[in-house]
Write a structure and sequence with these properties.
globular, mainly alpha, MetI-like fold, MetI-like, ABC transporter permease subunit, membrane, transmembrane, about 75% helix
Length: about 270
């Protein structure tokens, strides 16, 4: 690779990061201006929204709080436990439903009825079904992660070119060999996308899940801050959940791509 090519690539990368940082800075300045001037647009008001300076101070205090580690440990355990079970169940069901029409006819009707139910609606039933609040919270994150993984897996199987399967069968491949060597690799990109989205939705459901809890968790911290009207801490909790959700989704996606060397994404202009 020539020095000119390396220089151009570095320039493009610097430009991309510059645009991203500028976008973030513009959002922070707009937030600071709207909160500082107590902007009131009728349907939308910033009169009680804390400015970024107050949020930064609250974040600094949380960072030095002895409770932070307990909050993070509790939330990470709940999210990753629910996500792991959702990944296993979603991938197995998705491969089964996508590959065999009869199983699709049997399983999809009840799953499609359950899919639109929001996580908050599961709270009373989760409390009744599980003997501990910890299991209830893991179940809520499980329901949030399950359906993105399931539907993306089904889509990944269904979009495989039938000619690939026919070619493998004509070459003497059995049902298991076709499933392992054609269906799984073909559906893998969609599965990874579903896992990445599912991780994000698991974090999305965290506040809902930790409404059941009265102890620890970033979601509980956010909800408790709302109940005592500590507005800066609400925003801090939201930002922590957003950062953890984004980071874990990126890690899942990168790990998936590392396991798929045959899948090369097209570059973006």
């Amino acid at each position: 690779m020539s020095a000119t090519t390396i220089h151009r690539a570095a320039s493009r990368n610097a430009l991309r990061w510059g645009l991203r940082l500028a976008s973030l800075a513009a959002c922070l300045l707009a937030w600071q201006w709207a909160a500082g001037h107590h902007l009131n647009l009728g349907l939308l008001t910033f009169q009680n929204v804390p400015p970024p300076v107050e949020v930064a101070q609250a974040a600094w205090e949380l960072l030095h709080s002895p409770q932070l580690l307990g909050h993070l440990r509790a939330s990470l355990w709940r999210v990753f436990s629910g996500f792991a079970v959702a990944a296993l169940v979603g991938i197995v069901l998705g491969l089964t439903i996508g590959r065999w029409q009869r199983w699709q006819d049997v399983l999809m009707p009840p799953l499609e009825m359950l899919r639109p139910i929001p996580a908050v609606a599961w709270i009373p039933l989760a409390i009744l079904m599980f003997p501990s609040s910890e299991m209830s919270m893991i179940f809520i994150t499980f329901t949030g992660a399950l359906f993105p993984i399931l539907l993306n897996t089904i889509h990944g199987v269904e979009q495989i070119d039938p000619r690939l399967i026919a070619s493998a069968r004509s070459l003497g491949g059995g049902a298991w060999a076709i499933f392992v060597e054609v269906v799984l690799p073909g559906a893998a990109p969609s599965i990874v996308t579903g896992l990445s989205i599912g991780m994000g939705t698991a974090w999305f459901c965290l506040v809902t899940a930790e409404m059941i809890s009265g102890q620890f968790g970033i979601g509980y911290y956010t909800w408790a801050s709302y109940t005592i009207q500590n507005y800066a801490d609400i925003v801090v909790g939201m930002l922590v959940i957003g950062a953890l959700g984004m980071g874990s989704s990126v890690l899942v996606k990168r790990a998936g791509h590392a396991l798929m060397p045959w899948h090369q994404q097209e570059g973006k202009a």
